[in-house]
Amino acid sequence: SQTIHQWPATLVQPVGSPLSLECTVEGTSNPNLYWYRQAAGRGLQLLFYSVGIGQISSEVPQNLSASRPQDRQFILSSKKLLLSDSGFYLCAWTPGQGFFEQFFGPGTRLTVL
Amino acid sequence: GENVEQHPSTLSVQEGDSAVIKCTYSDSASNYFPWYKQELGKGPQLIIDIRSNVGEKKDQRIAVTLNKTAKHFSLHITETQPEDSAVYFCAASSPGGSYIPTFGRGTSLIVHP
C-alpha cells in the first residue's frame, strides 16, 4: 500500500533562518506531488505542485521554493524565513495522470519566531 | 477558475443527531468531488468522494449527494458520534484544472456527548 511521510513533524525556527521540509511517498511511481500551507482558520492554500522530476509549478509568489530531486521526493525550502511563513505545511500526492484522489501526509507544524 | 463555497463554517450537534454540510461550485466542467476530514494536528483524510455521473453515494453513516444542475453537493452524517468532531473540507476538481482540487474553507463539526 502507499504511504506518505513528512518530516520533521514540528519545527521552531528564528526569522531569517533557512528551511527545508521533506516529503516522500512509498508504494507508487510517478505520483503528482503537492505542497499546501494551512494557516490558522483552516483554509488550504496550494503552494507548489509537481508532475515529474524537476518539474515544479508555483501557485503563489512567496518566500518559498520547491524541488523534486527524485520521483517520490518533494522538498520545500526557504533561504530566509519570515514570521508570515508560520503555519501547518501539508504534502499530498495523487497517482498521476487521469487519477483524481489526493492523499495528504501528516503535516509539519512550523513556527517562526 | 473554480470557486467552492462551503457552509456552515461551524456546526454544533448533539450525539445521535444528523449533520449536513453543503458546498457549491462554479465550474460546470468539474467532475470529481471529494470530502476530507481533518482532526486536530493531523493531515486531511479522504472520507468519501463522488463523480459527476452519480447522484448519491453512501458509506455506512456518511453519504454525499450531488446536484449537477444546481452545482451543489452535500455531506450527510447520520447518528453522529463524538469522534466525528473534526474539520470537514469539500473540494471540486476538473480536467481543465489538471485535476488539482479547489477546496472549500472548511466546516468545524462539534458533536456534543
The proportion of residues in beta strands of chain B is over 45%
The shape of chain B is globular
Number of beta-strand segments of chain B: 11
Query: Order of SSEs of chain B, N→C?
Result: EEEEEEEEEEE
Principal-axis shape of chain A equals globular
Instruction: Summarize the main sheet of chain B.
Output: 6 strands, mixed
Mean pLDDT of chain A: 92
Percent of residues in helices of chain B: under 10%
Strand percentage of chain A: over 45%
Structural class of chain A: mainly beta
What are the low-pLDDT stretches of chain A, counting only 5+ consecutive residues below 50?
none
Measured distance between first and last alpha carbons of chain A:
38 Å
Properties at a glance:
heterodimer, A: 113 residues, mainly beta, 7-stranded mixed beta sheet, 4-stranded antiparallel beta sheet, 11 strands, 0% helix, 56% strand, globular, B: 113 residues, 6-stranded mixed beta sheet, 5-stranded antiparallel beta sheet
Describe the structure.
In chain A, strands 2, 4, 5, 6, 9, 10 and 11 form a seven-stranded mixed β-sheet that branches. A four-stranded antiparallel β-sheet of chain A has the order 1-3-8-7, with no helix packed on it. Chain A is mostly beta strands and 113 residues long. Chain A has no helices and eleven strands. In chain A, 0% of the residues lie in helices and 56% in strands. In chain A, strand 5 and strand 6 form a beta hairpin. With 113 residues, chain B is mainly beta. Helices cover 0% and strands 54% of the residues of chain B. Chain B contains no helices and eleven strands. Chain B has strands at residues 4-7, 10-14, 19-25, 32-38, 45-51, 56-59, 62-67, 72-77, 86-92, 102-103, 107-112. In chain B, the strands form two sheets. In chain B, strands 2, 4, 5, 9, 10 and 11 form a six-stranded mixed β-sheet that branches.
